[in-house]
Amino acid sequence: MIKYFLIALLFFSNAHASDIINITFLGTGTPRPDINKLGPSVLIKYANEELLLDVGRGSALRINQIGNDFSKISNIFISHMHYDHIIGIADLWLTSNLWQRKKDINIFGPNSIKSFCDNLMKSYSEDIKYRYKENNYSKLNCLKFSERNHKSNNIEIIEFTNNHGHIDNSYGFKINYKNKSIVYSGDTTYSENVIKNSMNADILIHEVIAASPKIYESNHKLKKVFSTHTSIEQLVKILSLCKPKLTILNHALLFGISEERVLSEIRKNYSGDVIFSRDLMSVDLGEEINIFNIGK
Ligand SMILES: [Zn+2]
Ligand SMILES: [Zn+2]
Q1: What distance in angstroms lies between residue 226's CA and the mean position of ligand 2's atoms?
Q2: Using an 8 Å Cβ cutoff, are 119 and 86 in contact?
Q3: Which ligand places an atom closest to the C-alpha of 41?
Q4: What's this model's pTM, rounded to 2 decimal places?
Q5: Domains of the chain: residue spans and CATH
Q6: What is the CA radius of gyration of the chain?
Q7: Which of 84, 202, 279, 284 is catalytic?
Q8: Which residue, 55, 175, 228, 229, shows the most beta carbons closer than 10 Å to its own?
Q9: What is the 88 CA–ligand 2 centroid distance (Å)?
């Protein structure tokens, strides 16, 4: 059963109970700047542990906004190297040091994540030299997915390749926790692999792209963008096959079309629960699904 709580306060999910896993959307946007939809980043909380999926623009701001402890996030998973998914890493890392974080931050991602982190640490070396003595600061410990030790008592996080067009190193994630599953599609067009991993998921967080016919027809560049993302038609096909308990549309690229219109188009051919994500929306997944701070 899915329950919605239309509340204006920012953070009060019930994620204390160890059988509940909580999803908090820190940012739900795209590369286009939008103060109400910061860059893509999803905070997952379970059994007193926390991890992040992607670190888009403003993630550190949102973590501060929900009153979260920076030092609690020890593992970060990056879906792909498009800048909108990684641009918040430097801010999160350096700001958590300001909060006297000592433990290194583990970041798992595509093959180039290592050189990205090394270069990032080099780029900020002057600031670090000025602030911290004798290596006394937290560093980025970045590993390719293939180097990751998957073993964990509490949770299983599986990365799987999706289909983000020309990007050959793009992933989605499946999270298994106490017989519940959450799937994060990452940036992708229709992908058999996303479908395979999302079968009967409790919550599927999926991206979407849509445009008004007028804008779509008159814009050549947009047609190319469509080929690397998931259209409404493709989404309906995916959802009809996977039948997630709840679908949360995220990283929505909408051109001249409203969220309401997108939902009504989907509902013509799919009757399952579908909502759009909102920045700071919080979802508790346990025996039931409770959604907090859903906005208007
Ligand atoms: Zn993106
Ligand atoms: Zn992308």
Answers
A1: 12
A2: no
A3: 1
A4: 0.94
A5: 2-292 (3.60.15.10)
A6: 19
A7: 84
A8: 55
A9: 15
Cβ–Cβ under 8 Å, residues 232 and 262: yes
Ligand 1 ion: nearby residues, β-carbon < 5 Å: 82, 84, 187
Q: Cα(110) to centroid of ligand 2, in Å?
A: 13
Per residue in 60-75, pLDDT (tens digit) is 999 999 998 888 898 9
279 catalytic residue (yes or no): no
Helix residue ranges per DSSP H, the chain? 59-65, 89-98, 113-123, 125-131, 192-198, 213-218, 220-226, 232-242, 259-269
Please report, as a single letter, which amino acid is at residue 160: F
Query: Coil, strand or helix: which one is 224?
Result: helix
Given a contact cutoff of 8 angstroms between Cβ atoms, the answer to whether 283 and 31 are in contact is: no
Beta strands across the sheet bearing 171-177: 156-161, 171-177, 180-184, 203-211, 246-255, 273-276
What is the strand order of the sheet 282-285 is part of?
2-5, 289-292, 282-285, 21-27, 41-46, 49-53, 73-77, 105-109, 140-144
Q: What spacing in Å lies between the alpha carbon of 206 and ligand 1's midpoint?
A: 12
pLDDT digits (tens, 9 = 90+) for 196-232: 999 999 999 999 999 999 999 999 999 999 999 999 9
CA gap 231, 64 in Å, rounded: 34
Q: Give me the sign of the Cα torsion angle 49, 30, 265, 7.
A: positive
Strands (E), 138-185: 140-144, 156-161, 171-177, 180-184
Provide the residues around ligand 2 (an ion) whose CB is within 5 A.
82, 187
Residue 6, C-beta contacts closer than 8 angstroms, at least 6 positions apart = 294
